[in-house]
TrEMBL record:
It comes from Methylobacterium oxalidis. The gene is cobB_1. This is Hydrogenobyrinate a,c-diamide synthase. The a and c carboxylates of hydrogenobyrinate are activated for nucleophilic attack via formation of a phosphorylated intermediate by ATP. CobB catalyzes first the amidation of the c-carboxylate, and then that of the a-carboxylate. InterPro entries: CbiA/CobB_synth, Class_I_gatase-like, CobQ/CobB/MinD/ParA_Nub-bd_dom, GATase_3, P-loop_NTPase. It comes from the Bacteria.
Length: 442
């Protein structure tokens, strides 16, 4: 991997990482730079915005959920045919779980592994010279990581900027640009994050506006010049995920969007054909396929329409009678008996798994999951350890599964038992757990 890299990170969430990342990506792409995106940690939504900004897929890099071989394989995908990889962090630069060095899931692990300098985004609203103390702390906290410079976000006035820069000059930290407070820069949001890229009708205009601001407010030449790192080796053992079948029917529309790009890339690399179909268009999984995958997404926003999609539901039941079907999060909800929407209306779903879910009874479920499969199935052999993530507000109204019908025994990232999770019935399985990688036992 010859492409140089750069990590856009921040001391905390809400600092403006996505704004700066998209502005930088679009501006450099407009200049003819072969820029590619990556996202640190488990996130479905931001990579789609990266793809819209650059014209190329963006991949997730996760030091906890991916072993070294998978992480390097995905990093090579991210850098394919690139001059520059711009990776966007999640949460704060050092935020992760308590684990061994390099395995915490924090952005800093990725910067350290690939030698990517960090462009630190500082939200300076409500601060002036004190912002330098925050930058200094980030620069000193982890000797594996180099903070190459900062971008100031939410600058109130020229005087405010001078005060902030005075503090940063005192610690010798380069300022590589600034963006003013501007409510128009905020992308629309809903639960789980930003409104999806495919649903943001004026996205191209927004991205071009961000690129214009980057041209005016960021030192793009200096930022590009500070990129570095060598990336992963040209080849390593192991790598990308294996496909669940030779021809895989994948639900794909506004209700089913959350499928990690590295999963699809791995399936295709091993010769599998991905066959998309749209449940919202009342399409069934094609009978010519030998496995069906229902990704996560927003079925709770489309529950009535899904319940009225007779061809989809009947076709899914027919498919599941002979071939394996798996649902993740939103897909799991649709495989269940019923789904209660935010208004309290209950809608019948496929009835393939003994679970009823509710979006009205909202409670945040968030965190890494390590799952040990209880039986052979579409995800692997009994005893296999899968690593992934949950992020949803829906709840199960039915009792937790008994072991004979559960998909897996699950722990959190630090090994605390969470009990049996998910369901399996015949060839059908599902859970709220999004698969990212696998891990050897022990």
């Amino acid at each position: 991997m010859s492409a140089r890299g750069l990590l856009v990170a921040a001391p905390r969430s809400g600092s403006g990482k996505t704004t700066v990342t998209l502005a930088l990506m679009r501006a450099l792409a407009r200049r003819g730079v072969a820029v590619r995106g990556a996202k640190c940690g488990p996130d479905y939504i931001d990579p789609a915005f990266h793809q819209a900004a650059t014209g190329h897929p963006s991949f997730n890099l996760d030091s906890f959920a991916m072993d070294g071989a998978l992480l390097d394989a995905v990093a090579r995908l991210a850098a394919a045919e690139a001059d520059l990889v711009v990776a966007e962090g999640s949460m704060g630069l050092f935020d992760g779980i308590v684990a061994g060095e390099g395995r915490t899931g924090a952005n800093a692990d990725i910067a350290a592994r690939y030698g990517w300098p960090v462009l630190l985004v500082l939200d300076v609203s409500g601060a002036a010279q004190s912002a330098a103390a925050v930058a200094l702390g980030c620069a000193a906290y982890d000797p594996r990581v180099r903070i190459a410079g900062v971008v100031l976000n939410k600058v109130a006035s020229p005087r405010h900027r001078r005060l902030v820069e005075a503090g940063l000059a005192r610690i010798g930290m380069p300022v590589l640009g600034a963006l003013a407070r501007d409510a128009s820069l905020v992308l629309p949001e809903r639960h789980l994050g930003l409104v999806q890229a495919r649903e943001t009708s004026d996205l191209d205009a927004r991205l071009d506006h961000l690129a214009d601001l980057a041209e005016a407010g960021l030192d793009l030449d200096a930022i590009r010049a500070l990129a570095g790192g060598a990336g992963p080796p040209a080849a390593s053992a192991g790598g990308l995920p294996r496909p669940p079948g030779q021809r895989v029917a994948v639900a794909s529309d506004a209700a089913f969007t959350f499928l990690y790009p590295h999963m699809v890339a791995g399936w295709r690399a091993m010769g599998a054909e991905i066959v998309p179909f749209s449940p919202l268009a009342d399409e069934a999984p094609p009978e010519s396929c030998d496995a069906c995958w229902l990704p996560g997404g927003y079925p709770e926003l489309h529950a009535a329409r899904l319940a009225a999609s007779g061809r989809f539901l009947a076709g899914l039941r027919h498919f599941a009678a002979a071939k394996p079907v798996h649902g993740e999060c939103g897909g799991y909800m649709v495989l269940g008996e019923s789904l209660e929407d935010a208004a309290g209306q209950t809608h019948a779903m496929a009835g393939l798994l003994p679970v009823a879910t509710s979006y009205k009874a909202r409670r945040l479920h968030l965190g890494y999951r390590v799952a040990t499969l209880l039986e052979d199935g579409i995800l692997g052999r009994a005893g296999a350890r899968l690593v992934g993530h949950e992020f949803h507000y829906a709840s199960e109204l039915t009792e937790p599964p008994a072991l004979p019908e559960a998909l897996a025994q699950v722990t959190d990232a630090e090994g605390r038992p969470l009990g049996p999770a998910g369901h399996r019935r015949g060839r059908v399985s599902g859970s709220f757990f999004h698969l990212i990688g696998t891990r050897a036992a022990g």
